[in-house]
Amino acid sequence: MTDSEKAPLPAALLEALGRYDTPTICNALEIVAPERRLIGYTTKPLVCPFPELPPMVGYARTVTIRSVLQSALPAAEQSKRRIAYYEYMGTGHGPRITVIQDIDGPDVGYGAFWGEVQSSVHKALGCLGVITDGSIRDIPQWAPGFQALAGSIGPSHAWVHADSFGGEVRVAGMTVRSGDLIHADCHGAVVIPTDIAAKVPDAAELCGRRETPILEIARSPSFTLEKLKEALAKSAEIH
Length: 239
Prior knowledge:
InterPro entries: RraA/RraA-like, RraA/RraA-like_sf. Keywords: Magnesium, Metal-binding. This protein has helices spanning about 10-15, 20-30, 75-90, 115-125, 200-220, 225-235; strands spanning about 55-65, 95-100, 110-115, 125-130, 135, 145-150, 150-155, 160-165, 170, 175, 180-185, 190. It is of the alpha/beta class. It has two domains: about 5-195, Glucose Oxidase, domain 1 (3-Layer(bba) Sandwich); about 200-235, no CATH class. Strands 1, 2, 4, 6, 8, 11 and 12 form a seven-stranded mixed beta sheet that branches. β11 (about 180-185) and β12 (about 190) form a beta hairpin. The two termini are about 35 Å apart.
């Protein structure tokens, strides 16, 4: 059974995950799923025009786009494809996060799929934001509160269109399937396997408790190397 076929997680759990930033979630996953230490998160830099927005947690709606080549579909078929795309975006477990792979190869980001219109439409459809290695535009007119992580910012949409949706995509080093649980903020994004998601908040809290004695002494005017050694030992004993 794929994640998209599973029952949605409790809203309270999604809220709990959203209390932590994405680096902390990655730290927590190292505890509960150490085999994922090198996979499941973005590894290439993405632009975040709205770093002040809180972390977003939602289920992925996956898309591939192209902008260098014009769609080969007749106008009527293009209209049907657009409606089918929006139906896909507006259905399924919520909240949702759009994850878009630009498949234009060396021309990735040539045309922006996202701007004032798409951010507003997708927000209305119940999406929290977009994660894409493609480009975005219309930053001042962007839908308020709608998060964006993008490969670049550009002025034109060129021939941009959705090539496919609902399949597996790879964005900035992160492989995502439709329905995957995503946690993202200005640092990047990570996939949280739903079968271990309930363990992540406690692990994140543990990470914080382990860091506390180190941070306290590091920020103290009475800092010494010996006190740092003591804090590190104390941190290691916290379970």
